[in-house]
Amino acid sequence: MIESQTELPVQGSGPATIWAKGRHVVAVAIAQVREKVRALPGSRGARSPRGLGLLVSGLIRQSQFRTDFTQIVRRVAAGTGDVSLLNRFALHLVVVFLAVGVVAVSQFDLPQIDVLLPTPTPAPDLGEHTVTAPPTTRGFNRFTINNNTALFGAPVLHTTRAERDRMEIITYTVQPNDNVWAIAQGFGLQVETVMWANPAVEKAPDLLSVGQILAILPVDGIYYTVQLGDTVEKIAKRFKVTADKITAFELNGLQDPYTLTPGQQLVVPGGQKPLPPAQNLYPYTRVGKPPKDAPTGSGRFAWPTQGLLSQQFWSGHPAIDIANRAGTPIYAADDGYVLSAGRDTWGYGNQIVIDHGNGYLTRYAHLQTILVKAGQVVKKNQKIGTMGSTGRSTGPHLHFEVIYNQVLRNPTGFLR
Questions:
Q1: HEC per residue, 112-146
Q2: What is the CATH number of the domain that holds 324?
Q3: To the nearest 5 percent, what fractions of the chain are helix, strand and coil?
């Protein structure tokens, strides 16, 4: 046939021509493989296939492989006596071999090893180190307080956060440096829930004692003891929830017709109680008329000490607590005179109350030492005492109040 006897110029003949065509096919295939490698996710997984592709292409280009392939073609041609036939099918053989190689590589899971990472070496023995004990955290991150610092709360560090599927009432033993706010944060509850579940805490939320045992509910709400004549509807109305909130709560174990027994304890999920008047919790004693030279404060208060904001202002604690080491200096937050200074019988230990002459009072409680006396004029940032843990306290801290016209205000809104 003419087609079998005529060598077209575009086909060429001989091993060199076949090798040129095969090399072209290889180059196209390698380019496609590289494109697929670039699309692989992750740098560590892509480096090994890319490196392998470059290695294979380099090996294919080596002269020894080309020489061996040429010799094979010549020997087979000599045996068959049909050079043109081999010339026509050699290129197909190259493509077949290349396809088999690509499929094999694509099916092989290469280890994802980042060869660029240095081999780690053991660290030298650095010896033993002594760690200085930090100041008490009382449940907060270590933010140093100064006049330009914004403070943010954090959960108590030593309390395990409860899972929401907990369906039993557990107890918690108060630890050194604890407060009600930090304990509630640690269990993922509202602080009022911890207060309402513990009658002793409800009477005096800021007067915890180390070793005191607290009941911890699984959800926010009220822990209520059934009284004579109570019904589910009456309890629900009293605590501002619907009756089905109480009956549907699994821990209560109630079944229709929901008969209650005096002394029975129920959890009222989402229940609310009225809060006691704050002024009844924080009494102070006046000493008489202010001195003639008493200055008037500016109404802009400086931070009274340095340390950690360990408890924020909340309904049962209308003040802030700042924790640090015992002996940390305490300063007057603004100009004024000392209205009261001495030992408090309510539970706040050594305290100072300063009248700023503009409707504002500030209180400094649980002090280790008092450096001023009643009736004395003080200036802003004047040292008036040192931090301590006197009275009912679980650790060294300053209990700081801002009172305006007999109303306790949130100190963080006034501090600069």
A1: CCCCCCCCCCCCCCCCCCCCCCCCCCCCCCCCCCC
A2: 2.70.70.10
A3: 30, 20, 50
> Tens of pLDDT along 206-227?
788 899 999 999 999 999 999 9
Number of structural domains (the chain) is: 2
Residue that terminates a domain, selected from 46, 79, 106: 106
Bridge partners of 353, per DSSP, are 340, 363
- Name the helix (H) or strand (E) containing 24: helix 14-38
CA distances (Å), origin 376, targets 278, 288, 321: 27, 12, 25
282 found inside a domain:
yes
Q: d(Cα 56, Cα 19) in Å, to the nearest integer?
A: 16
Q: Is the pLDDT of residue 288 over 90?
A: no
Q: Which of 55, 84, 106 is the last residue of a domain?
A: 106
| Residue 78 amino acid letter | A
164: in domain: no
Question: Taking the CB of residue 311, how many other CB atoms lie within 10 A of it?
Answer: 26
Amino acid residing at 92: H
Which of these ranges, 136-145, 250-259, 330-339, 355-364, has the smallest mean pLDDT? 136-145
Write out the residue range of the structural domain in which residue 300 sits.
278-413
pLDDT, tens digit (0-9, with 9 covering 90-100), for 328-343: 999 999 999 999 998 8
* pTM of the complete model beyond 0.90: no
Q: Is residue 262 part of a domain?
A: no
Give the Cα separation of 269 and 254 in Å (integer): 14
Query: CB within 8 A of 317, min separation 6: which ones?
Result: 179, 180, 181, 191, 205, 206, 311
